[in-house]
Amino acid sequence: MGSGELSSAAVPRSFFDRPSHEVAPELLGRVLVHGAVAVRLTEIEAYGGPGEDPAAHTYRGRTPRNAVMFGPPGHLYVYFTYGMHFCANLVCLPEGSGSAVLLRAGEVVAGTELARARRSAARPVADRDLARGPARLAVALGLLREHNGLDAILEGSPTGRPRESATMRQGRPADPATIRSGPRTGVSTAKDTPWRFWIDGDPTVSPYRAHVPRRRSTAATSVGEVPSS
Fold first, then answer.
1. Domain hosting residue 97, numbered range
2. How confident is the model at residue 116 (pLDDT cuts 50, 70, 90)?
3. For the chain, what is the domain count?
4. What CATH number is given to the structural domain containing 106?
5. Which of these ranges, 2-6, 60-64, 102-106, 224-228, has the smallest mean pLDDT?
């Protein structure tokens, strides 16, 4: 996995079969592997279920777009936003619940050159910025629309999984003393809910930004806030 300090043991499905705000801080320091790239998670946001969390995609119930969030825990929910970015989430709670955690930032610990090639269009990208932010993290891992619904849990999965499968690994869980929490980034509703969790002092954590309403123009209309999980 690129570092002898990181455990390659798989995370069990039961880990995600809990409320998202309990899962989120415990995901810090764990590693998501997709193909040849692995990212140690350093920043996570939790989102609740239907009728509970107005910032969540599932607040108004199930739709074709958010259907994966109502599936089994441990699957990837990948969505497209602003017409240009993909963001990745991991489903929490039992099937039918509609909850997930947004993967906001991380450190690339394997496949660095591939991640850099995916990120670098015109200029070099510093290691700390390869997966610093939810869109960058998805790009570094090569997660696209076709990966929506991908199972990230080895437990109970068919043997002989293809190289392009996704897998959650134990990594090196963050020391609880280093974990901080605060308001979620860029949401206009339930904006004070302290369900953003990060590793204090880690250089890959993205900067906090409060929601700023987007202006409409004659050339294009606003798509609203960046969708969360």
1. 7-199
2. very high
3. 1
4. 3.10.300.10
5. 224-228
